[in-house]
Amino acid sequence: MRLFLLPISTRRTLLYCQKLPLAASEKQTWNDWVQSKASRTWADWEKQEKGWKKSVVNYGNYAFRRIPYEEWGLKSVPPLSQRRREVELNGTEKVEVVYPKSLLAMDKVPKILEALATERESLHRKRLLWCFVGMPLTIPIGIIPLIPNLPFFYLCYRAWSHWRALAGGKHIQFLLKNNLLALTPSPIVDEVYAEQKQPLASTPEPTTAPATDEFKTLDPPASKTPNPDGETMLLSQANGKKMTQALDLPQLEVELERAIWQVETAIRKSNEEAKNQQGRSESPREPKSDSADSKEDKKLQ
């Protein structure tokens, strides 16, 4: 496998794991087979012109787009099976980490990977538990004829998704602990970021939670940070597509598109809230009514 660290903004970085072709001696795992089968089924449903399958796909894609891109990134990292653990520990080659040298200093890359692997760990555990609690409650819906039990299947999917994110995070922690990563700056990635035209969406305040502020990922050049204490986008949707073409990774396109959209939405929402708050603080006080003025005059007399 190969890991990619692609900054989306000055405070957020996308993690993506590319699955390399299997060696002749390797077999496809059961988990990979299930994922492949589900992907083919979903693609077939997307081709439907109408019907409940097409409706499920439309609502599903709407919901999938709102799953945090950090979760998708961790899910792209395969779980650490015992066989994979032995192969990586005894292997002669390390796992390559591709990143832009112009935006990420080499000594920061391990810290960013550790943050991405651990900062959402408790959240995934908590939501995995709630999915297990909710599953039995949705089983009676399956009694209704001709209607698939979508709430149950959705909770099953979300439980699997949280488990995969936890497993991906554990795998990255294992690689960091055993020094099994080869940090590889990419001139191709740097070139795409250099071609990005300014200005991009920005906000004077960070959109990340205070708990993750310490994991600010970048110290980019001043030309790219009109709001150095806030947050600035580093990729547009157009350049995100250029990135996937330059890296010859078409499967990365949907991941970048989702991440860019989510961060742009967070920045836009933050700016709107700041604007509304400023408008409320600058709104003039309402003039007193005549009756109130007359009462005050009487008191003064």
UniProtKB/TrEMBL annotation:
Residues 197-234, 268-301 are annotated as: Disordered. The keyword Transmembrane helix applies. One of its GO terms (cellular component) is mitochondrial inner membrane. Residues 199-212 have a biased composition (Low complexity). GO terms for biological process: potassium ion transport; proton transmembrane transport. The chain crosses the membrane at residues 128-147. InterPro entries: Mit_KHE1. Keywords: Membrane, Transmembrane, Transmembrane helix. Residues 282-301 have a biased composition (Basic and acidic residues). This is Mitochondrial K+-H+ exchange-related-domain-containing protein. It comes from Echria macrotheca. The lineage of its organism: Eukaryota, Fungi, Dikarya, Ascomycota, Pezizomycotina.
